[in-house]
Amino acid sequence: MKITGKENKQWSRLGSRATYGQAILMLAEKLDDLMVLSADLGNSSGLDRFKATHPDKFLNIGIAEQNMIGVAAGLAKEGSVVFASSFAPFITMRAAEQVRMNMGYMDLNIKTVAIGSGVSMSFLGNSHFGLEDAAIMRSIPNMTVVSPADCAEIVKTVFAAAEYPHPMYIRLTGAVGFPVVYEDDYDFQIGKAVEIKLGTDVSIVATGSMVYESLEAAKILQEVGISVSVLNMHTIKPIDTNALDNLIHKGKIIFTIEEHSITGGLGSAVAEYVSSIPNSPVVNRIGLPDEFVITAEYRYILEKYGLVGSHIANTIKEKIKI
Amino acid sequence: MTNKEKYDQVFIDSFSITADQLNENLVYQSVQQWDSIGHMGMVAALEEAFDIMMETDDIIDFGSYNKGIELLAKYNVVI
Amino acid sequence: MNNNELTLLAKKSRVQLLELAFKSDGPSHLGGGLSMVEIFTVLYGNILNYDIKNPEWEKRDRFILSKGHGVLPFFIALHNAGFISQEVLYTYKKNESDLISHPVMNLELGMESSNGSLGHGLSMAVGISLALKKRNNFESRVFVVMGDGECNEGSVWEASMSAAHFKLDNLIAIVDYNKLQSDGNSETVMDIGLLEKKWESFGWDVISLDGHDIVALNDALSHNANNMKPRVIVAHTTKGKGVSFMENNNTWHHNRLTQTTFDQAIVELNL
Question: A62 and A202: one domain?
Fold first, then answer.
């Protein structure tokens, strides 16, 4: 699925959820046996146009996420490609066991899409935040976990997911105005990290919304003579060990950055692998603390926990003792 | 292009409608493409066409073709 | 408070609610908040036993807003009751505030539990009701407000089944039956069928009433029926009640007021 910089800018204005809605609408033109499910969050998932255009491909299960996953399983088993969306905690925790049994244990071809993951739900608060969703999904065998870095990557992920005959958890961070990372088309493959920026002093591995913030941090650090590489690890599971081998080989300190708890997500996945290789560099995990977080505007929360470019740059400077 | 021509073209392009639909009946959700997504796209196109940035409240109040003309006057765009 | 006073308080509460939502300068769950104004007015104006000077008073009645996004009338009721000052009330939706879009447990402010994810409150209420009986507290009652969309959640029915099983006659649930949910008309999204009959079949004592009728609410809430059953009040309401352009208009499920719409609404409410 090719994208252009211009499209990406338009999608960026619409934001992550609306882009999912657009992507799945485009997919429906190409995929006959597509089923899209929601748990009374169709409008919130950007699906109103999809519902109107393809009513036969849409099912609203009402506020019943556990049932949604079970129903998705039945549909998938009978051959449909199924996408089911809701907020992160409701998919990964409310329906965790259904996810485990149907997607994990039975390896059924369901893609769950967590809209509003991370802390983008702002004033809706912790009940709605996705703080630990990647950690939980990662721990289930047979699960693939992808966190797109910008709206173009959301589109590419949706299209790639449709061709990928395995269960997948797609974690959407960002909101309206999700910043653009990719100004041009690029090669996207599930499981293959993308080297967005080369650098020689510090290695950043980021995912989702933090890819853009890492690039901002890299610009700031460049100005003080610190050269930072940024690797977009969109697929948290299975993690791209080849890409990590390259970083290990470079031997520079590694920072992982995610809009997710530092427990169990990208950082943990990277640390698990890197620590198994002798003489490997230190991995510093930057993310949300092991706490329920404050409630505020989205950007305010990110700043509070150091998850914006300038703060990330400061954290890195401190850690490498500049 | 006059301002009116630019304004009209945005509606025609954004919602795949024809010139004869550009009247007081053209309101939010009265045509299929003027849903929440279409609305954002139309606003973005108007902002680009007239080089303005609309305030959130105005974007919300922008419920019809006619209302839009009224609102744009706030940004010194006379249709 | 008598019924006339309650009616006036409900009217005043609607105005306070809109002012709060408008001043917060962002979207609020207005529709589903307005449908519950009478319910909250009667609960906090007449029914619930509480002591604002002693929010942890053992003999207090417990109230849980399981329909967590219904905070607007809840915060207004807590303010009018004296739990939340005007100053604190206006921290609603300010960065790092205690008052966000869903209740966060804080007994000082009058909030018994944290909610937001639907379908949790009734289970906790069952637990509290059991605990009260265990401790021989036969004065306190437990009240839970849920939404009809919320009744889509299976966990509600697990709790419902257990409440009847445990014969919790100190438990009252209220369903704000406004027949709309986030994606639209509830019958179209996920038809709940005959709601009263469902609760009845689960062993509850069911009262069906007009959720904006203060007299009826007062009567139904004042006591349980003494038949060893939990009671549910299925309150038929109108989402957006009180503001003509919001009534049954689901674009007001979660939306922000502009100066224009705020002014229009206030004019109507002051008539």
Answer: no
The ipTM estimated for the assembled molecules is 0.91
Domain-embedded: residue A177: no
Backbone phi, psi, residue C219, to 5°: -65, -50
Closest CA to C109 of C86, C91, C85, C84: C84
Is the same domain home to A18 and A112? yes
CA B22 to chain C, closest CA, distance in angstroms equals: 24
pLDDT digits (tens, 9 = 90+) for C150-202: 999 999 999 999 999 999 999 999 999 999 999 999 999 999 999 999 999 99
- The C-alpha atoms of residue C14 and residue C103 are separated, in whole angstroms, by 19
Integer CA distances (angstroms), A220 to A224, A310, C36, C48, C117, in order = 7, 7, 51, 57, 40
Considering the domain architecture, whether residues A234 and A111 belong to the same structural domain is answered as no
A59 pairs with which residues across the strands?
Answer: A37
Asked if A20 and A166 sit in the same domain, the reply is yes
Q: Cβ of A14 and B35 within 8 Å?
A: no
Token readout for A47 is 């699906």
Q: Which of A308, A244, A306 is closest to A271 using CA atoms?
A: A244
CA distances from residue C242 to A87, A186, B65, C151, C167 in whole angstroms, order as listed:
31, 53, 29, 25, 37
Place of tokens 């060990």: A241
pLDDT in tens, B26-44: 999 999 899 888 998 899 8
Pair (A303, A253) in one structural domain: yes
Question: Which residues 229-268 of C have a C-beta within 8 angstroms of B?
Answer: 255-256, 258-261
Q: Any idea which architecture B3-14+24-75 has in CATH?
A: Orthogonal Bundle (1.10)
Could you list the residue range(s) of the whole structural domain that residue A311 is in?
194-319
Q: Residue A270 has what pLDDT?
A: 98
pLDDT higher than 90, residue A321: no
- Per-residue pLDDT tens for A85-94? 999 999 999 9
Closest CA to C220 of C203, C240, C236, C202: C236
Residues 28-67 of B with CB under 8 A from C: 56-57, 60-61
Q: What is the mean pLDDT of chain A?
A: 96
Q: Is residue A310 part of a domain?
A: yes
CB contact under 8 A, C256 and B61: no
> Rounded to an integer, what distance in angstroms lies between the CA atom of residue C160 and that of residue C129?
13
Q: Please give the full DSSP string across A236-259, using - where no structure is assigned.
A: EES--HHHHHHHHHHT--EEEEEE
Q: Total structural domains in chain A?
A: 2
What pLDDT shows up at residue C225? 78
B35 → chain A, closest CA residue: A49
Which residue of C260, C262, C263 to mutate against B (max B Cβ within 10 Å)? C260
Q: Give the global pTM.
A: 0.93
Q: Are residues A111 and A206 in the same domain?
A: no
For residue C227, count CB atoms less than 10 angstroms from its CB and return exposed for 0-12, middle for 13-18, buried for 19 or more.
exposed
| A161 and A227 within one domain | no
Cis amide leading into A165 (omega within 30): no
Our count of domains for chain C comes to: 1
Say how many Å lie between the first and final Cα of chain A, rounded: 43
In a shared domain, residues A167 and A20: yes
- End of a domain among A106, A137, A171? A171
Instruction: Please report the pLDDT score of residue B31 as a whole number.
Output: 93
